[in-house]
Write a structure and sequence with these properties.
Elements lengths: L2 H16 L3 H37 L2 H7 L1 H24 L12 H16 L2 H10 L10 H31 L5 H23 L3
């Protein structure tokens, strides 16, 4: 892979990562409600889910989801159900702010697991990667190395983008001091989760 080709991919994946989706919503919601430590756990979970999709694409299972309607539909509806469930849970959350000092190991583990499922149950992610990666694989270079470079680049970009969303959430948190404001924000994020789930339900 040449530097020019890699820079083209870097620009492509950066633009796509910046597009708000379930991962960004999850990161901002966690950042506001659970502080820095919770956000770190959440971003780590998102990356593990994304890395799993990258591995699946690398071993050829991405093509299965891209061409098998049944496999795509099963994963899609699992993702829809999970996002709607998250939205309902977020909507019902009390108007409270969990500061870093109050974050415990158990809650961080729950946030980590939740974030894994947010990315893992998104079939559009694996289908997108299965369609995108081959466009940047040059036949006269070692394919395994190129997949490794593309995968590492995808993860690095997504981490930086999620950190950006987390910083934005931290700035918003400065203005959210009362339970009424937190309740409104929780309902906003809950509605966004449900909207993303509805958008995923319409995916073909």
């Amino acid at each position: 892979m040449t530097w020019d080709w890699w820079l083209t991919y870097l620009l492509t994946t950066t633009i796509l990562s910046l597009s708000p989706g379930s991962g960004a919503i999850n990161t901002m919601s966690t950042g506001i409600s659970h502080g820095y430590r919770g956000t770190v756990a959440s971003i780590a979970g998102l990356q593990l889910g994304l890395a799993t999709h990258i591995v699946l694409v690398g071993i050829g299972l991405g093509a299965l989801f891209a061409h098998s309607l049944l496999a795509f539909e099963i994963l899609k509806w699992l993702g829809v159900a999970y996002l709607v469930w998250l939205g309902i849970q977020q909507w019902r959350t009390a108007g409270s702010l969990s500061l870093d000092s109050r974050s415990n190991l158990r809650s961080r583990r729950q946030l980590f697991k939740r974030a894994i499922l947010v990315n893992l149950t998104n079939p559009k992610s694996i289908v997108f990667l299965a369609a995108l990666f081959p466009q940047f694989i040059l036949p006269h270079y070692p394919q395994a190395t190129q997949y490794l470079v593309l995968g590492a680049t995808t993860l690095a970009v997504d981490i930086l983008v999620m950190i950006g969303y987390a910083v934005l959430a931290a700035r918003l948190a400065l203005w959210l001091k009362g339970p009424r404001q937190m309740r409104l924000l929780n309902r906003t994020f809950g509605s966004l989760f449900i909207m993303v789930g509805a958008a995923l339900a319409s995916a073909k």
